[in-house]
Amino acid sequence: MLRPDCRSFGGLRALLTQSPIPGQGQQQRQRAQLQRRHRDCSSRARTVTAASSMRQDASAASAAPRMGEDEYFERWHSIWEGGLQRGERFDLGHSSPSLQHLLGSKQLDVVGQRVLVPGCGRGYDVATFAVAGATRSVGLEISEIAVREANAYLDEALGGGAGGSSPRVAAAVHPGNFFTWSPSDDGGPFDVGYDYTFGCAMHPTHRMDWAAAWARLLRPGGTLVTLLFPVDPAADPQHGPPYPVSEQLYRGLLQPAGFKLESMDKVQPEHSAAARAGREWLGVWRRC
User: Fold this and answer.
1) Residue 24: CB atoms within 10 Å
2) For the segment 221-253, what is each residue's pLDDT rounded down to a tens digit?
3) What does the alpha-carbon distance between residue 142 and residue 179 come to, in Å, rounded to a whole number?
4) Nearest CA to 285 among 268, 245, 256?
5) 3-class SS of residue 191
6) What are the pLDDT digits (tens) for 256-288?
7) What is the Cα gyration radius of the chain?
8) What distance in Å separates the CA atoms of residue 37 and residue 86, rounded to the nearest whole number?
9) Which letter does DSSP use for residue 87 in this model?
10) 79 in Cβ contact with 100 (< 8 Å)
11) Element (H, E) at 118
């Protein structure tokens, strides 16, 4: 509770302008004491306000009903069963321009690396990593229809896999639950992970499991590339998918899971799909 003599700057000024105290040195000491008292009270007030805000946030999070995995997975099965076409909804029809720029500029070098792309959809990014020189580029999808569509796209884009050095040999999309899938099913932990329109697809009650799964699937020293979308502070955080995300959200999830942020930059409009321009940020993390 705030002391009655320092509830406002006005109150403090009133105290400081009371009848003179004999002795200039004593007056200065009295003024300094009152100023310190005001700063202490202001600090306590800010602490109480911050703590109250944190309690409200925690209360809201705990009040949100947890979505069951079956319900979550069924949502995506139904989208693919409905005949999702290239370029519809979350399907861009190609890799993000931001990923293409990241690889083309060698800011991210995947030559000789093993790459994991969960929620890969039709596999555009899986193909992109294979062409960029990954020795293994693996996509995960929970829908068998998506897996079939993705592997058909890989055959089309990478030439069907003739020859041991073909990018098609390096690329594959598997059916699997990201939360429980074991990297030993495809050679052990991965060197690089790529997360785009996947973290934002997680129901908010699954986010801590999402971060823990990334920590489990990447080797120590490995790289996680997160292309954040949609970054929209005005959006309802409980409305999705895609659920709005932010740098602060990803920090709060990934750092406790064992990741160090190496860079976080707003994506330039020319490196975003037109419909997503201005709402994307690119984060690069190191698995500790």
Assistant:
1) 9
2) 999 999 999 999 999 998 988 999 999 999 999
3) 11
4) 256
5) strand
6) 999 999 999 999 999 999 989 999 999 999 999
7) 26
8) 65
9) T
10) no
11) strand 114-118
